[in-house]
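User: Predict the structure for this protein chain, please.
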Amino acid sequence: MALPDLLPIIPFTRPVRGEVIVPGSKSLTNRALLLAALGEQPVTLTGALFSEDTRLMAEALRKLGFTVVADETALTVRVADQANAFPAPGSTVANSNAAPAHSAPAAPIELFVGLAGTAARFLTALCAAVPRGVYRIDGIPQMRKRPMRALIEALRALGADIRCLGEDGFFPIEIHARGLRGGAVNLDASESSQLLSALLMVAPLAAGPVAVALTAEVRRPFVEMTTRLMAEFGYAIGEQASTETYVVNPGRYVSPARYAIEPDATAASYFLALPLVTGGSLHLPFLRGPGDGLQGDTHFADVLTRVGATIRTSHHGLDTSFSQINMQRGVTQNFAEFSDTFLTLAAISPLLAGPTRISGIAHTRKQETDRVAGMAKELTRLGQHVIETPDALEIAPRYLRSDEIIETYGDHRFAMSFAILGCLDLRGDGKPWLTIRNPACCAKTFPHFFELLETLRQNSLAS
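Assistant: Here is the predicted structure, written as structure tokens:
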């Protein structure tokens, strides 16, 4: 549905009831698209996410010569024609900007990544690892500020010819592909684990072993997600002698014919938290519990149980509920391992008894926006007492101000997190008291979020 620039959130006047099916994982969908492209046989992804980020990734693969057939109704994506991808310069690629055969030199294939960090890092690594072609990658102005330098320098150390067309270490870039030779590289992936994941996934294509030595701490759950997914696509890195160095030998991917994408654990965080705001209960089919499956963000469920929610694993998913006989408690939590979910907790912190302290989030200052500063500013707008440090937020609940407009900074997680808070019937009259600016930014990962939220509200009235 079309969303206005300013969207008042209509509160729930009755406890939430029913079930909600969250979309597939963005992280897994884009990793699986890349790994499917690196294999030799057609792969069908089921339960895939259809959002701005994944569409950008799929369209880039089409421009590179792959056949990518998407069925949004069936939630499937088929990747095929791997042998026809990355044609020699001067040949024709459907939907690409490759020059005709008589032109010299061939025009670069233009790849646009918007603000999709996963697509940006994965495609940079992919294009650097292939043996031929010229590829120009760019995004929107915000993407030109996101961390890329560490990956670019590591790929250059492995033999890649990557030319930054603006400031060195940032987009836009032009890659003159000639493959990777292998060798030892240092990598600081503290700003984004995607930098390491991108390098690991293409490392088997190198001519020799690749040894990646980490020079700073990295978010391990996302790296483990990557290596486990690589194994499910037929390439196992194998046991590592050190947790600080990853050694990847030359090899090949043997992809499954079909691969099922898990529901997105970060997207689920909003609905797992909803009963804490409205009361009631929800069932989330197919969702994995903490530590089960590939996504580290499933551990957010543990945080919510400490806050006061009851979350149980059922045969077909998770059940979340909250009863008013419980107390919503403030908590102290380091979110370094699952930081995409910190905004969900921060947004509902005004409802909790006592302060909430959230740490391990310094790296989120360089994501879609400065998430630490943005969250501090919006909570202060709502009347909360917030102490902001480089790596943490401490939020002391105060009476919520109403009739405020929440700025999203073009960041989908601000829009969805504060929408959950807006479901509170603050004044007891069922009328909106909180408005979200630019709710359409949710198209990045969860295009039908607000439609789903309104369906739940309508269903609660009928129950």
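The radius of gyration is 23 Å.
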